[in-house]
Amino acid sequence: MMADLKRNFYVGFIALSIMMSMLVGQDASVRPYSPVYFAIVLPALVVPLLWWRGIAAAAMGIGWPLVVLALLAGGWQLAMGDYRAVIQLFLFVWVLLWVCALDVRLSTRAYMVLFAGSIVAGCVGYFVLHNNPWGFLPRMTSSDFTIWRLSFFPSVVLTGLFSLFLLIAVAESRESFRLRLVSNMAGFYFLIFSFVRTAMLAGAIYAPLAVWFSRVRENWRILFFVPVILVLLIHGSILVAPHFLVLFQDNEIVSRLLLRGKTGLDVKDVYDQISRPWIWQKHFEFFLSSPYLMGLGNFDFFSLAVPVPEPNQPVLSGSEALVTRLLATYGWPAFFLIYFMVARLYQHARAGDYLVCAIFPGVVILAMNYGSVLHPSSFLFVLYFQLLIHGRKTFADNVREDMTSARAADPHIRESNSA
Predict the structure, then answer these.
(1) Does Transmembrane show up as a keyword for this record (predicted)?
(2) Strand, coil or helix: what is 125?
């Protein structure tokens, strides 16, 4: 009974989050404490209450670094009187602890159905709500954007990230070949034509790593150290990339893929085009300048980073980079989140769970580039952190497979009721 209730509430949370993502336009800002704000945030606060026992256990177990983060950073910001920063941190830690405690396992078929339903809802919303500037077929997109880019969400980034998650789910699926083929075609179609470069890069890294790691899953050192090294190399490369891109900017492919079709740029212009290294740098400067390295709390990123903006300069919120934003906001206690993520990678590497190890670099890349999308009230936040925390057992298909193998060794083992 409780298992069915939890499953229904979990599916309801995912479906409601998808629906709200359809209603909010790409450039629309949600006013704090408005009805839309509460419709987005309240489910993330209320739904996890069904798992309160599991959350308490997670807080004393694998989630203890998150609790330390909340106590240290939250306590400091409370003493500073920054209540908004405290509330935001509580929501972040609360949802992460919920994901740690999640004992609901949906099948890969269920995620395929959710994806298909999202496409249908997005197509209907395109004609009814008129808040999606992107089309779902080539050349339907507004002329203000690249006309061949597609999205069934008003935010093209959501489409790219959800498509990537679907492809990961299909790779773990035991469903029929026809269903997997159709799902793969839909996932690749929207991943490629949404042209979310970070999602495509994450997928390009995940695919070969998953194949390699599935063959060497007994070697935990490869499963652990290769993702860590890749994360460092990739972000180091991004930091120095503008110095090389400026040399190849006249190449049409380089210009279109990495510089949004622009040429005649200097190194500073390329940094502005990429924007993320500049944001990381500013976040780190704010962290170093904060009192006792405890972060600035809530602050207006753009006004601090650019005191005198140039005409027509794009306004960046700083929320694009999740990890460095947490560092700038909450100071050195944010390193406990990094420790938590690396600890989960280590534990799964020791257990031979190749999925976590293969997707780890991709999730870090997403968090460093689209942190505003990975908000704790978003279904994508829950889905991607499930992959990091639960690995292959995110999907019921793999839970059943493990139970079948275990029963072959011991016929007295009963199957779990977490569907």
Answers:
(1) yes
(2) helix
Rounded to a whole number, what is the largest CA-CA distance in the chain?
72
State the average pLDDT over residues 256-277.
Answer: 69
Residue 273 CA to residue 201 CA, distance in Å, equals 17
Rg of the chain (C-alpha set): 22
| pLDDT tens, position by position, 365-406 | 999 988 888 889 999 999 999 999 999 999 998 776 554 444
Per DSSP, what are the bridge partners of residue 106? 395
Instruction: Provide the β-strand partners of residue 150.
Output: 135
| Rounded-to-integer distance, Cα 195 and Cα 182, Å | 20
In whole angstroms, what is the distance from residue 302 CA to residue 396 CA? 44
Q: Are 401 and 174 in contact (CB under 8 A)?
A: yes
Tokens representing 337?
């989140």
Vertex 296: Cα angle to 294 and 301 (nearest 5): 145
* CB contact set of 172 (below 8 Å; sequence gap of 6+): 108, 355, 392, 395, 397, 398
Six token digits for residue 281: 């740098």
CA 201 to CA 359: how far, in whole Å?
11
- How many alpha carbons fall within 13 Å on the CB side of residue 112? 22
309: left (phi over 0), alpha (psi -120 to 50) or beta: beta
Give the residue carrying structure tokens 């950073």.
73
Residue 315's pLDDT band (boundaries 50, 70, 90)?
low
Which residues face 371 on adjacent strands? none
Kindly report the pTM of this predicted structure: 0.89
Reduce the DSSP state of residue 194 to 3 states and report it.
helix
Q: What is 370-407 written as a DSSP string?
A: -TTTS-TTSHHHHHHHHHHHHGGGGBHHHHHHHHHHHH
CA dist 27 → 21, 30, 101, 132, 381 (Å): 12, 10, 34, 10, 20
For residues 328 and 46, give the distance between their C-alpha atoms in angstroms, rounded to a whole number.
Answer: 28
CA 369 to each of CA 55, 65, 287, 341, 372: distance values in angstroms, whole numbers, following the listed order: 29, 23, 18, 17, 9
Geometric angle at alpha carbon 389, from 65 and 192, rounded to 5°: 125
Residue 248, amino acid: F
